[in-house]
Amino acid sequence: MRILLFILILFFFGFTPVKKGLNPYHLSGYAQGTTYHITYYAQDSLVRGNQVDSILDGIDSSLSVYKPYSLISRFNRSERGCLIDQHFQEVVRKSKEVFRNTGGIFDITIQPLVQAWGFGVQSASSAPDSAEVRNLMKCVGSDKLHLAGDSLLKDEPCLHIDVNGIAQGYSVDIVAAYLEKKGIADYLVEIGGEIRLKGRRQPEGAMMTVGIESPADEPGAEPLQKIVRLAGGAITTSGNYRKYHQQGNKRISHLIDARTGYPIQNELISVTVWAKDGITADGYDNALMGMGLKKALLFASRQKNFEIYLIYHKPDGSVADTASAGFYKFMKPGGLASPKKKE
User: Closest Cα partner for 196 from 210, 207, 214, 216?
Assistant: First the structure.
């Protein structure tokens, strides 16, 4: 799965009435090419790690381009399409919605371009030239992708898809739904930095918060940029400073603009999105990176239940940050980080 900015999980002690008899349970493991961490509060151990592993393995069997037996791999090898399961259908529906709403910036049919630029399953010896990009663009476009009942069909045999830009957000939603089905009302689910949460830390009633890193030149050296308090929903981050190729003095981002076929180049360093669910937040964070600063803020201002936080380069090369109006309300005053005046 794609490499994301790591989101550090913290807790802010803003107390509410205690829910007696609840204990913390912690689960962690490795899935989807990354790690997961889950904390939930209950009277007994209602969910075990092997149950979570089974859920995530099922999603991988549907959506992982790294598994040759997965449904998505079967679709990519097909001439016209194939039968798909519920996981695949839900992700494709949401992906096509994000494709329409962003004017094609987010596009799961971008897989041939991702591969050509050296960020796919197989390595690439060199960057594609303009002729190769133009040729590959003939195989890109979610408007050439069609859901028909239990089948996913494509207009061109060369149409290949990659849902790594949205699948982990969907995965945290599925795990969260499983916890709620078990009667768990207070939890935090994190997979590869993508987070879905609800309720508060128990038994003390402390409010859960999330810390967002700022960029650093060396992995693991990222300082804490902001802390936000959240009562629920999902928060995901997309950035361009960890996964890239160096070409001379130029960094080639792993984020590809499906409208042009070339890596995204603008002032944005990272975009953090809060939304009601993970699939929405994850689906839009890459697209917002492609929009650039002003268009991303304008887009967010027109959405409901949708807030963003942006880190970007100023024209002089210095790093700054800003956010949508609603995101500032999430930020913890004082302490490790406090809201800055919006620029």
Answer: 210
Residue 336 located in a structural domain:
no
The candidate with the shortest Cα–Cα distance to 128, out of 3, 267, 238, 256, is 256
- 197's enclosing H/E stretch is strand 194-198
Q: Which of 340, 332, 277 is nearest to 310 (CA)?
A: 340
The verdict on 146 and 171 lying in the same domain is no
Look up the pTM and report it: 0.85
- Residue 9 φ then ψ, to 5°: -95, 125
Q: Would you give the end-to-end CA distance of the chain in angstroms?
A: 34
- Helix and strand element counts for the chain (H, E): 9, 17
pLDDT tens digits, one per residue of 314-338: 999 888 999 999 999 998 553 333 3
38, 171: one domain? yes
Long-range Cβ pairs for the range 52-59 (8 Å, 24+): 52/27, 52/175, 52/178, 53/29, 55/174, 55/175, 55/178, 56/31, 56/32, 56/171, 56/175, 56/191, 57/31, 58/87, 59/32, 59/87, 59/167, 59/170, 59/171, 59/174
Residues 6+ apart with CB under 8 A from 135: none
Nearest by Cα to 309 from 189, 198, 225: 225
Please tell me the total count of domains within the chain. 2
Cα–Cα distance list, 235 to 25, 55, 83, 269, 284 (Å): 21, 21, 32, 17, 11
Cα 309 from Cα 311, distance rounded (Å): 7
Domain range enclosing 224: 7-46+166-330
Determine which helix (DSSP H) or strand (DSSP E) holds 111, and give its type and residue range: helix 111-116
Regarding whether 182 and 104 lie in a shared domain, the answer is no
Is residue 199 within 8 A of residue 206, CB to CB? The reply is no
**Backbone phi, then psi, for 283, in 5-degree steps?**
-65, -30
Task: Give the tens place of pLDDT for each residue, 101-154.
Answer: 999 999 999 988 888 777 666 666 667 778 888 988 899 999 999 999 999 999
